[in-house]
What does this fold into?
Amino acid sequence: MADLYYVEDDQNIALAVKEYLEQRNFKVTICPTLFAAKQQLKEYVPTCVLLDWNMPDGHGDGLCRWIRSNWKDLPVIFLTVRGDTSDIASGLRNGADDYVVKPFELEVLYLRILAVLRRAGSAAEQYISCDAIRIDQNRHAVFCNSEEIFLSAAEYQLLLYLMKNKGKTVTREKILAQVWDANGSYVNNNTLTVTIKRLRDKLSQPSCLKTIRSVGYRMEDTI
It folds into this structure.
């Protein structure tokens, strides 16, 4: 099932699109404002974003630029009313992958989504995040508050393992086994402690990386 965010303030249109697409194996989350969409994206990256141009708190091109600065390959489809060619041009300039003109046939929208996804692949598999920390797995790149953070190989693998297990407490023993032992590097508890400290320092002491005393560590969203 593919996840899709639909940024739309007209509830009737949003619900009709949601019902249609969910019958075709999409999970649709409706975002009634640009702010709500941004908050959703900080928590989880979907497979695709449908973005209405005219929203109560602004125009969609600003959100599209923000998406492109954080998730280069996340598919974005603009929805705009007929005749607003300037909106279409602006949307494409700011990184949208395609556009659909309102009013639209639901089947046409569905086919355009499928076409964009075939071209783009799944960004949801590429990006994982926790609070302001984001990993681009394809590039092995780490970002915190949109700034790229350079980590050692061990620091990256540790962060990746914790984030892939977001919401779960993982024991120190399991971390050592998965991050170091599995790669043939047998280290002691002190190595893990030092690596966690360096990781926290580089990520500006993130509140989402928690120490579970006498057990291990857990990453979880706090905002």
About this structure: The mean pLDDT is 88. The two ends are 26 Å apart (CA to CA). Residues 131-219 form a domain with the Arc Repressor Mutant, subunit A fold (CATH 1.10.10.10).
